[in-house]
Structure formats: structure tokens, C-alpha cells
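Lab notebook, design round three. We kept the backbone fixed and only want residue identities now. Task for the bench partner: fill in a sequence for the structure below.
Input C-alpha cells:
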């Protein structure tokens, strides 16, 4: 596998797994001329986009990139829909598509995919009002087809609070396997040993290839890798960036500056490896002293596990935990990250936005807030547990009491074997049973 293609692992011989994004793309192309599919490398953008395209330009191919750099207008030639893969490698093609849209391109004309934001100095029109952008993420749990979901996130968001039912044979051990397998389509299909090598290759390529390709300058690659590992250890926490920096450089007197650490964060966000969950600050409620820091997550929990050297055995046994202030275990944090990944994919299809909520003193905290376009919300707690304890529902019920009529439903996602609704109205849903 050569360096140029070291992060493009999707085998054409693999069976295609249907994605939630498929319907979103079809809906956009039916009524609008152009859609941009954004997301980290390896999530399956090209394979999914190819299912909707009739003509493709792959800009990560040297000859194609060179030809389009000399004449970006070439992307207009072909049978619609035209797929322009990794468009950010030749930024002028974006403006070519935008101008084509301005001139009246028909619905379903262009699909663009991109795995990195442009460098801050690059100049292209935003495309606002012309090119619709959607985010693609690694495979959510229902997309992995390990179970048939019985509980619909869309129905929970509707607020009818109907009956919740269903059972699953997926066990806590199975969830650990899914965390380590990753949601990258081609990586998860590999045998365990090869999968670990592919994850290592992915992480190495971020520093040596992806960030430089996106215009980033990494003077100390080892320091950036250490910071990324510390960020992975901070999964599902609200640790400050200075705390993450200290964890990345224990005992070192010559630490990177805070400015350098923020540059690391920005570079990793540019290639879409960081996926923090922003804090929910409701404008319509009289809630005071709310925390405003993001909750840290990588684009896939398998990356966090690999960065800190977590194995199936260490996670199950609760040993070799990364030294980082947190409530609960690192396995619980990774399970929450898997739940966040899944909910984000499903919420996007419902036009929902995902946040987390906590009060300043951490007296009340809700792991996931899914906000509807009308600002009503679904409140979700995540527990790596097969039982529901009284404390598990405290924050959910407190939040509903503070905002009458605004909380459409309350949910606990856990590792139990059946879905049901409690007498207090909280829906208990095994994560494997959550679907569209």
C-alpha cells in the first residue's frame, strides 16, 4: 500500500452497507443542484457518493489533480450527477461548481466530497445558498447491521412518548468489540491484528500526510501525536485544553505553549478528527450558571482506544486506565462516545442538533441533548450498565421539571437486553436497538 493511498482502504470487493446518509443525499439531489459531503477520511464518503453519481473525478489521483489544477472547468464535463472527490485538493473547483449553480444548474448536478477544511488563507466562496453541506461520520451502530433496531430516534423526537419495546442478544462484551472494531467501513472488516495496524496507519497519516495536505505546518510531530493521545484519554470529559496539554507532557519542563496546543486542536479539527460536543445553552429557559465547555470526542472511539493502548482485556478488566480526571471508567467513556457517534448520525437525518448539558457545579448533567428545529429537546443519558439506578434518571427528570413542555422525551441508552418505558416516563433503550 503506497503512501499516497495509505488512508483509502475501502475495498471495491466489499459488500456496501447502506448508510443513513443515502436518503439525505437522494433528497438533496432531487431538489437542489449541488451537495457537499464532508467528513474524516475513511468514513465512506467516496463509496456512498459513488452510489449516487454517474461520473467521477478523483482528485487524490495525481494526474486528475494536475489536470484540474491547470483547468478547473474540466469538472463540468460529464454525465450528471458528477462526483468531485476530495475537492479541497484543488480548491478552485468549488467556485467552478458554485458558478455553475448560479447559472442555473439542474437539480442533482454535482456531488462534492471533502475530508479537510481549507487552510485559513485559502479563498473560496462559502457556497452558502448554493451548495448544501452535510456531514458523514463513521458507521453508526444500526448501520453496522449487528442488530435490528426497534426504537426510532425520530419517534422519540416526535414527543408522543409511545410504548417502547424490543429485545436484543447484544451483550456488554459485544459493545466492547464494536468500540474496538471502529466505524470505518474497511478497517472494521479486517482481522483484529490487521485492524490495529490500519488504525495505527490512520493515526500516523493524520500527522504526516493529512494535516500537511490541508495546509498545516507541524514542527513537532511527536508533540502533536502526544497531544492527540491525551485528547483521546480525555474522551467524554470537559477537561480544559491546558489539562490536556499537561497530560500530554507529564514531567516535561519544555512544554509547548498554550498557543501551540490550540494550534494542535485547530489542525486536528481541520482534518475532522476531533468531534467535540458543544455545550447546550438554551435561550428560552431561565437556567443559570451553565457550563459552556465542549465535551471531548474523537470522530471514532476506536481511535481513542488505540491512542491510549486500550485492549479488549484491559477494558473488560478495568486495568491500565488512562490517568485522567473523570467520573466512571474509560470503557464507560468510550461507550458514551459510541452512543454520541450513533445519535449524531440519526439526529442529522431528523434535522436535529446534538449538544451536552451541565450546570456549572456539575450538580446536574445530561450526556446528550438532541435539539429539534423548534428548539424542543430530547434528553439522553448514556450508561455502560445493564441496570438503571435511581441516580441515573435524576438529571433527566430535573431538566424536564425546569422546562415544562420543552423536553419531548427522556431516554437512557445502556447495555441491557430489552427496551421499555419506566413509570416516570423515562425510556430505557439498549444502544443496539436505537435506529432511525
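Proposed sequence:
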Amino acid at each position: 500500500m503506497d503512501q499516497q493511498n495509505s488512508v483509502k482502504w475501502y475495498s471495491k470487493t466489499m459488500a456496501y452497507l447502506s448508510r443513513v446518509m443515502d436518503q439525505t443525499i437522494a433528497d438533496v439531489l432531487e431538489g437542489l443542484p449541488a451537495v457537499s459531503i464532508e467528513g474524516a477520511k475513511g468514513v465512506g464518503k467516496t463509496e456512498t457518493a459513488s452510489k449516487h453519481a454517474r461520473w467521477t473525478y478523483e482528485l487524490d489521483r495525481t494526474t486528475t489533480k494536475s489536470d484540474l489544477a491547470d483547468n478547473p472547468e474540466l469538472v463540468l464535463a460529464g454525465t450528471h450527477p458528477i462526483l468531485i472527490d476530495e475537492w479541497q485538493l484543488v480548491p478552485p473547483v468549488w467556485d467552478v461548481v458554485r458558478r455553475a449553480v448560479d447559472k442555473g444548474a439542474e437539480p442533482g448536478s454535482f456531488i462534492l466530497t471533502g475530508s479537510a477544511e481549507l487552510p485559513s488563507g485559502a479563498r473560496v466562496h462559502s457556497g452558502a445558498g448554493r451548495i448544501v453541506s452535510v456531514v458523514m461520520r463513521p458507521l453508526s451502530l444500526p448501520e453496522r447491521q449487528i442488530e435490528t433496531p426497534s426504537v426510532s430516534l425520530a419517534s422519540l423526537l416526535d414527543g408522543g412518548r409511545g410504548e417502547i419495546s424490543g429485545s436484543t442478544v447484544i451483550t456488554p462484551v459485544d459493545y466492547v468489540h464494536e468500540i474496538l472494531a471502529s466505524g470505518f467501513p474497511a478497517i472494521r472488516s479486517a482481522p483484529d491484528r490487521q485492524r490495529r495496524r490500519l488504525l495505527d496507519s490512520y493515526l500516523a497519516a493524520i500527522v504526516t500526510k493529512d494535516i500537511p495536505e490541508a495546509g498545516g505546518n507541524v514542527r513537532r510531530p511527536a508533540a502533536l501525536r502526544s497531544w492527540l493521545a491525551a485528547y483521546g484519554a480525555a474522551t467524554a470529559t470537559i477537561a480544559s485544553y491546558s489539562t490536556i496539554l499537561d497530560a500530554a507532557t507529564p514531567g516535561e519542563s519544555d512544554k509547548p505553549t498554550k498557543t501551540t496546543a490550540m494550534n494542535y486542536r485547530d489542525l486536528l479539527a481541520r482534518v475532522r478528527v476531533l468531534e467535540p460536543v458543544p455545550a447546550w445553552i438554551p435561550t428560552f429557559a431561565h437556567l443559570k450558571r451553565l457550563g459552556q465547555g465542549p465535551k471531548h470526542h474523537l470522530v471514532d472511539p476506536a481511535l481513542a482506544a488505540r491512542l491510549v493502548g486500550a485492549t479488549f482485556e484491559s477494558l473488560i478488566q478495568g486495568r491500565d486506565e488512562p490517568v485522567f480526571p473523570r467520573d466512571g471508567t474509560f470503557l464507560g467513556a468510550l461507550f458514551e462516545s459510541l452512543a454520541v457517534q450513533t445519535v449524531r448520525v440519526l439526529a442529522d437525518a431528523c434535522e436535529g442538533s446534538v449538544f451536552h448539558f451541565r450546570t456549572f457545579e456539575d450538580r446536574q448533567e445530561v450526556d446528550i441533548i438532541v435539539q429539534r428545529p423548534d428548539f424542543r429537546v430530547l434528553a439522553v443519558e448514556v450508561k455502560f450498565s445493564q441496570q438503571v439506578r435511581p441516580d441515573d434518571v435524576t438529571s433527566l427528570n430535573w431538566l424536564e421539571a425546569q422546562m415544562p413542555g420543552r423536553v419531548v422525551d427522556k431516554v437512557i441508552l445502556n447495555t441491557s437486553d430489552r427496551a421499555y418505558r419506566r413509570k416516570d416516563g423515562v425510556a430505557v433503550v439498549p444502544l443496539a436497538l436505537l435506529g432511525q
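Keep this in mind before ordering anything: The chain is about 35% helix and 15% strand.
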